[in-house]
């Protein structure tokens, strides 16, 4: 017993070893197995063991074995041996058979004590052996474990949990409460504190001892506070702050240079320096006169015990990696400053799927210019259909098949992103062949802190024509956003080859408009961007911004997300998908539109998973299908896609610069009812903020429209009569009954008397029209509703490739074609009479040598004209409104032909078509403002206040 006594293991209460995590260790070498049994360890020494040693000469009585270290587990006061170890100096492991002899010695010692685990080490390399399996096999059976020996490794091996995935969410919930109750810190500070301690435990459980020595690991802090103070001369929290924390920052050094040329070239920078580590947020450091760092020691030790009780942080549940930061968003009502960093995982996943990152060639670049904690870049590493195994390490250097780059202006967020990435690279952290320098370089090359200008952040260095995919959720702020433009004005010189004041001079309100300019310029030809934007950006009458964006990009998709999809706002948001145009003349594809009512979890505080209710995941699948297969049909109107009620394909013309880019207008009222949409619930403060922001935008838009109209209408104008057959043609549509539509369904839209321009009476078969000598309209036109109590006098612009019923009057600003059988205006009933030998198709015959539209729906150029169709609709609507037409005064063809319109003219008295177009564009924007105002009223009336 001499050795046990000399080393202080014998106490009045019995044998007590040194704490080793949840276990105790007896560091011996001169005490036999038999003496350990007599001292109180609970086991019966074996009388003999059955294992054929080749190199080690075992004692005849195995109870005389003297293991170097014995690890024991105290269970209800009983001291149960669980492992033995043989520590050999390197000088004793020089010969070929020395390692075999050491392993055999450990096996014999373990079998003599009846334990399964044995290990050998020279202090640098560890070999783990299953003694029981070795005895059965008659040869050494190793356990596949590459980590250095630590309490966590012993715990995993003893409990057989090396491959078990753990979900630390309950741990994070509990630790959140402890931190907040002790410090009353903001959620962001609580999050940073949790992540810092999490990193300590994670690194202690995974890094080699040569990188993070025992005195700097989590386990050194686990002794009783009094004992720790006697040994170290300070409290645990002081030791952590003054010793362990600096060591971690030394391993994951600050002020490291990005060494990847491709990353630097993206931003046109010769040098990019990282100034952050993986930790730098510890709420307990906020001391005061009455509160010192040491006063938090009890709370700190309580947190350590929670982590220790949870177990090893080796195999972490992937879902926790995805949702770590969301835990803290659900714990406080004050989320505004924190929520801007995080896109919910159930939105990130579908967006990653839509991006089809697995199809990207080597050395492609994926960028998030507002990276936050890095979800868009890191989650693809976990998905088998995205970028699994994208980050590897070879010859002490990190490698990425696809370059991942995340930019942010906030240092704390950049730290969180790096810590997040380290969790996603857990296997590499455990791999002894991966150096800490390579790990840190991978973090530095991926997440860039750009805060040279803390207002502009990454906007200061816009990438140009270099990025394959952008996935991002940029900040959106309109009020006070002028500071960004003012800051841009004061930037001297070129940044990445451009003057920022010119580069960002594309119009639009808010920071999000600047980011859209950044994004469109960053993409390579054919590159795609998946961007979360506020509804206000899509509805805003920012024609200049939209025109500039469309000059570089096509819109591929616009998907509405449900209200409250984000933690910190009820503001409606969208996923906008853009593709950089390959050439300026590239055609625009139809736009994939969707309404996501659900995202796979409840949209309240709890965020309870609802995997069977996930419209967004379904839309992501449909977008991938559409992206890969396109559509074989000409899309002339919003068309349901793959029979999905919340997905449609919409003509690209519906996303012109002067159009709204939201999607709800492409669903009819009946279809919205079918989707089961209902009123939202928001709190009163949120309602006031949303209503104020919306109304302010409307006021700004109205003021701008008023000023533009006043300027445009100040010039000369002249009156033109629609009865002038050399300049106009006025005619009626054709008789199409409901029974005709039911019996002859087809693909040609039929418009009749309705109050909404998108409403169709039905779709008619083209062959049915052919049999009656009717062709769909070959050119665009302006239509006037001739009847209907609420519709009479309404004026709509119509695209080509449709037909109108006979209670609709068609007006076009060019003369009728000269044919033998001229059309004649009929009687007051508005029917169209055909002259002798004339056919109805004469209404669509050639005019002035211009070919009309072909049967494939390709619209030809209309005949030459000097009155813009869009302006004609505006002027006609104004004339009819001023005339005060009621239902009794039906507007059939003769009455419409008697109308006159006022048209802007130039100095020579000729129609000024450019000014016409400008007025038409402003009036169209005004109509959009009116619609938005009406929608705001409906929303205000229907929303439920909590």
Characterization of this structure:
There is one protein chain. The chain has 946 residues and is of the alpha+beta class. Helices cover 36% and strands 17% of the residues. It is built from 32 helices and 35 strands. The protein has a ten-stranded mixed sheet, sandwiched between helices. A six-stranded mixed sheet has the order 3-4-5-6-7-8, with helices on both faces. A hairpin with a 2-residue loop joins strand 1 and strand 2. The radius of gyration is 37 Å and the shape is elongated. The protein starts with a helix and ends with a strand. About 5% of the residues have low confidence.
Sum up the structure in keywords.
single chain, 946 residues, alpha+beta, 10-stranded mixed beta sheet, 6-stranded mixed beta sheet, 35 strands, 36% helix, elongated
Order of strands in the sheet with the most strands? 15-14-11-16-17-19-18-20-22-21
Largest sheet: 10 strands, mixed
- Low-confidence runs: 332-339, 820-857
In terms of DSSP E residues, the strand content is 15-25%
Gross morphology:
elongated
Helix content: 25-40%
- How many strands appear in the DSSP assignment? 35
Radius of gyration over alpha carbons?
A: 37 Å
Mean pLDDT, nearest integer?
87
Number of helices: 32
**What is the terminal separation in angstroms?**
72 Å
Structural class: alpha+beta
């Amino acid at each position: 017993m001499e050795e046990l006594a000399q080393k202080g293991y014998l106490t009045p209460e019995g044998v007590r070893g040194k704490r080793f995590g949840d276990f105790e260790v007896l560091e011996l070498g001169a005490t036999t197995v038999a003496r350990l049994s007599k001292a109180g360890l609970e086991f019966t020494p074996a009388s003999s063991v059955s294992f054929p040693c080749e190199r080690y000469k075992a004692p005849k009585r195995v109870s005389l074995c003297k293991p170097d270290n014995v690890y024991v587990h105290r269970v209800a006061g009983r001291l149960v041996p669980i492992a033995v170890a043989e520590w050999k100096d390197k000088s004793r492991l020089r010969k070929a058979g020395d390692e075999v002899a050491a392993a055999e010695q450990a096996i014999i010692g373990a079998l003599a004590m009846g334990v399964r685990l044995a290990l050998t080490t020279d202090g640098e390399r560890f070999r783990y052996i299953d003694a029981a399996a070795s005895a059965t096999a008659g040869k050494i059976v190793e356990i596949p474990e590459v980590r250095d020996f630590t309490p966590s490794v012993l715990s995993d091996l003893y409990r057989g949990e090396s491959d078990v995935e753990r979900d630390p969410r309950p741990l994070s919930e509990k630790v959140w409460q402890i931190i907040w109750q002790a410090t009353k810190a903001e959620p962001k500070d609580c999050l940073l504190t949790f992540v810092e301690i999490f990193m300590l435990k994670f690194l202690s459980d995974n890094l080699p001892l040569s990188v993070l020595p025992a005195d700097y690991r989590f386990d050194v802090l686990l002794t009783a506070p009094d004992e720790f103070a006697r040994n170290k001369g300070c409290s645990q929290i002081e030791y952590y702050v003054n010793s362990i924390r600096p060591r971690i920052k030394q391993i994951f050094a600050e002020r490291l240079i990005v060494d990847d040329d491709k990353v630097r070239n993206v931003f046109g920078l010769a040098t990019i320096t990282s100034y952050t580590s993986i930790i730098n947020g510890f709420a307990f450091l906020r001391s005061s006169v009455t509160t010192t760092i040491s006063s938090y020691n009890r709370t700190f030790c309580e947190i350590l015990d929670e982590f220790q009780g949870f177990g090893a942080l080796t195999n972490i549940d992937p879902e926790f990696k995805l949702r770590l930061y969301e835990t803290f968003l659900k714990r406080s009502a004050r989320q505004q400053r924190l929520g801007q960093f995080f896109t919910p995982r159930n939105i990130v996943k579908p967006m990653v799927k839509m991006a089809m990152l697995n199809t990207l060639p080597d050395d492609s670049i994926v960028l998030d210019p507002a990276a936050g904690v890095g979800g868009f870049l890191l989650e693809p590493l976990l998905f088998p259909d995205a970028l699994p195994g994208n980050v590897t390490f070879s010859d002490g250097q990190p490698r990425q098949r696809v370059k991942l780059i995340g930019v942010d202006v906030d240092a704390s967020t950049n730290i969180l992103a790096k810590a997040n990435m380290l969790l996603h690279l857990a296997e590499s952290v455990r791999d002894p062949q991966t150096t800490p320098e390579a790990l840190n370089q991978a973090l530095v090359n991926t997440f860039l802190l750009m805060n040279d200008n803390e207002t502009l952040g990454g906007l200061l260095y816009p990438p140009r024509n270099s990025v394959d995919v952008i996935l991002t959720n940029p900040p959106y702020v309109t009020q006070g956003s002028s500071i960004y433009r003012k800051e841009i004005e004061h930037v001297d010189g070129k940044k990445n080859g451009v003057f920022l004041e010119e580069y960002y001079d594309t119009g639009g309100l808010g920071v999000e408009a600047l980011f859209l300019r950044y994004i469109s310029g960053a993409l390579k030809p054919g590159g795609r961007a998946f961007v979360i934007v506020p509804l206000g950006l899509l509805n805003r009458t920012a024609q200049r911004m939209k025109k500039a964006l469309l000059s570089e990009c096509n819109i591929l998709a616009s998907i509405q997300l449900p209200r409250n999809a984000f933690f910190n706002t009820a503001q409606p948001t969208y996923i906008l998908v853009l593709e950089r145009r390959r050439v300026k003349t590239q055609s625009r594809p139809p736009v994939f539109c969707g309404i996501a009512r659900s995202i796979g979890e409840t949209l309240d505080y709890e965020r309870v998973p609802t995997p069977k209710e996930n419209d967004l995941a379904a839309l992501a699948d449909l977008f991938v299908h559409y992206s890969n297969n396109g559509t074989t049909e000409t899309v002339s109107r919003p068309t349901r896609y793959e029979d999905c009620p919340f997905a449609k394909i919409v003509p690209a013309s519906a996303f012109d610069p002067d159009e709204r880019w939201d999607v709800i207008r492409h669903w009819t009222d009946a279809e919205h009812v079918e989707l089961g949409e209902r009123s939202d619930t928001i709190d009163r403060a949120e309602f006031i903020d949303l209503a104020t922001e919306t109304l302010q935008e409307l006021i700004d838009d109205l003021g701008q429209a008023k000023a533009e109209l006043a300027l445009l209408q100040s010039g000369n104008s002249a009156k033109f009569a629609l009865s002038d057959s050399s300049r106009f043609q006025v005619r009626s549509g054709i008789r199409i009954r409901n029974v005709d539509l039911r019996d002859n369904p087809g693909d040609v839209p039929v418009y009749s008397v309705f109050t909404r321009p998108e409403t169709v009476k039905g779709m008619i078969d083209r062959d049915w029209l052919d049999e009656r000598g009717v062709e769909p309209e070959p050119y665009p036109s302006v239509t006037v509703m001739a009847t209907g109590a609420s519709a009479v006098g309404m004026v709509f612009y119509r695209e080509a490739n449709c037909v109108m019923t006979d209670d609709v009057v068609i007006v076009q600003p060019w003369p009728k074609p000269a044919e033998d059988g001229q059309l004649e205006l009929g009687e007051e009933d508005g029917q169209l009479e055909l002259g002798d030998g004339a056919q109805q198709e004469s209404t669509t015959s050639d005019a002035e040598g211009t070919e009309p539209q072909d049967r494939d729906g390709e619209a030809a150029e209309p005949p030459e004209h000097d009155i813009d169709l869009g302006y004609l609709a505006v002027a006609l609507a104004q004339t009819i409104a001023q005339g005060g037409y009621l239902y009794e005064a039906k507007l059939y063809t003769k009455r419409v032909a008697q109308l006159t319109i006022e048209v802007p003219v130039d100095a020579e008295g000729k129609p000024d078509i450019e000014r016409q177009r400008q007025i038409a564009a402003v009036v169209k924007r005004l109509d959009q403002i009116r619609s938005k105002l009406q929608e705001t009223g409906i929303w205000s009336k229907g929303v439920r206040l909590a």
